Automatic annotation (TrEMBL):
Pfam (any one): LplA-B_cat
Keywords: Acyltransferase, Transferase
Pathway: Protein modification; protein lipoylation via endogenous pathway; protein N(6)-(lipoyl)lysine from octanoyl-[acyl-carrier-protein]: step 1/2
Keyword Zinc: no
Molecular function via GO: lipoyl(octanoyl) transferase activity
Record-linked NCBIfam families: lipB (TIGR00214)
Protein name from the UniProt record: lipoyl(octanoyl) transferase
Its EC number(s): 2.3.1.181
Gene Ontology biological process: protein lipoylation
EC top class, as a word: transferase
InterPro entries: aa-tRNA-synth_II/BPL/LPL (IPR045864), BPL_LPL_catalytic (IPR004143), Octanoyltransferase (IPR000544)
Family statement: Belongs to the LipB family.
BPL/LPL catalytic domain span: 1-145
Length: 169
């Protein structure tokens, strides 16, 4: 799962929470279409992004003084088994989906990261989706993205982490 929690001053965009929700959904719809040729849409009366009757992205925001918090969660390679035992988001007669499940072609192979956690195809899928999310987010919100790699020494693994900042274009 990829989670995107942008912190944006809506005074620099539109001071409209429905617009912001729909814009976040648009980011995911564009990612699925442009990167994976998956036709996704909104479902009347529901928040999130859907492929058929499967919800692939949840959107939830918090806004204080027009500064946004929280954002979206996109199911990339999420184990969906636990969703069989609950009614996710209180929505009956709908399922939860993932990009991996929709593509059907990303099968486990050799490992990456910590042993047994992710497989190389999962890592590729997450990386591809992450890059596309950043690209589509910058286009929808008309922002220029600057990448900065910062080491995170407090973690056991010393893999540098990426940080993003943006400015209005």
């Amino acid at each position: 799962m990829l989670v995107m929690y942008p912190i944006i001053n809506l005074r620099n965009h539109k001071m409209d929470l429905h617009w912001y929700l729909r814009a976040l959904e648009e980011v995911v719809i564009r990612v699925l279409s442009s990167t994976f040729s998956i036709k996704a849409s909104r479902l009347e009366g529901f928040t999130g992004v859907w492929v058929g009757d499967k919800k692939v992205a949840a959107v939830g925001i918090r806004v204080s003084q027009w500064i946004t918090y929280h954002g979206l969660a996109l199911n990339v390679n999420t184990d969906l088994t636990p969703f069989h035992s609950i009614v996710p988001c209180g929505i009956r007669n709908r399922q939860v989906g993932s990009i991996k499940g929709l593509l059907g072609e990303f099968q486990p192979s050799t490992g990456c990261g910590k042993a047994g956690v992710l497989h190389s195809n999962d890592c590729q899928l997450i990386d591809i989706t992450h890059s596309s999310l950043i690209k589509e987010f910058s286009e929808v919100f008309q922002l220029e993205i600057f990448h900065k790699t910062i080491p995170m020494p407090e973690f056991e693994d010393t893999t540098p982490r990426r940080s993003f900042t943006w400015k209005l274009t």
